Amino acid sequence: xxxxxxxxxxxxxxxxxxxxxxxxQKMQEPLTVAAKSNRKDLVTNIDKSxxxxxxxxxxxxxxxxxxxxxxxxxxxxxxxxxRVWIVDPIDGTMNFVKQHDHFAMMIGIYxxxxxQLGYIYDVMNDILYAGGPQLGGxxxxxRQLTAPTDLALSEGLIGASGPLVIHDIAHMQAIVHxxxxxxxxxxxxxxxxxxLEGKSLGYISHLKPWDIAxxxxxxxxxxxxxxxIDGRPLDMLSSNLVLVxxxxxxRDILQIEEDDVSL
Length: 263
Ligand code: IPD
Ligand code: CA
Ligand code: CA
Ligand code: CA
Prior knowledge:
Elements: H1 2-26, E1 33-35, E2 42-44, H2 45-61, E3 66-69, E4 83-91, H3 93-99, E5 104-111, E6 114-122, E7 127-132, E8 137-140, E9 143-144, E10 157-160, H4 162-166, H5 172-178, E11 181-183, H6 188-196, E12 202-207, H7 209-221, E13 225-228, E14 240-245, H8 247-259
Parallel strand pairs: 3-4, 10-11, 10-12
Antiparallel strand pairs: 1-2, 4-5, 5-6, 6-7, 7-8, 8-9, 12-14, 13-14
Helix pairs in contact: 1-2, 6-7
Residues 47, 70, 88, 90-91, 93 line the site of one calcium ion.
């Protein structure tokens, strides 16, 4: 059984490495960019072609699995029964378009809704974060990660999505004020890498399943808490206001929510 997962992991790593080569090559050509729901919600030809490439590879690796992909090339899911792969082909599309940097590819593998393996690939730095319960840890390429220090909110940096702070949703301004400082990286995947590496203690954002599927698996493997902003389990089939935090910072943030404090 363990060997089966090892083998599957090797196949996913190889698929992601090939996908990276293709993306780097396609980035040499001008991008085709379109707006989805609004002018800040972009999709490019590479988001689409990379999702198609990844899903085709997943179907070869695991023919009976179902796949949920952001750009719609997977299956329409109404439950998480069986093996489900959740794919974000380019996370941080705005960064991808404007910076050609600071974006990630992400895959999360679930079995009957239970975490198995997660992958966040920092494409430009060529660092693949891979792990989960089936591998018994998390690795950044060859380097095994240790669990981040359990910092209290006042002791570390917190990642957030800009609009939450601007509109002060869910006491964001009080949370940021109580932390050591706020960072906004523009990619859920890159935010979660900072937490895995112990560089940030948390992240708060409205996220869809493909934004959080991989990170949830990797973070929880290292003891980081992943919940809704009021401490409930995530619904992996819809959008959630997600709170990722060290144990102590989660406790501090849930207390701010409960106290209903404003600055
Ligand atoms: C987005 C990014 C962004 C987050 C958004 C996501 P996408 O993903 O992760 O940082 O704030 O909520 O939708 O659309 O670039 O894959
Ligand atoms: Ca998107
Ligand atoms: Ca995303
Ligand atoms: Ca995306």
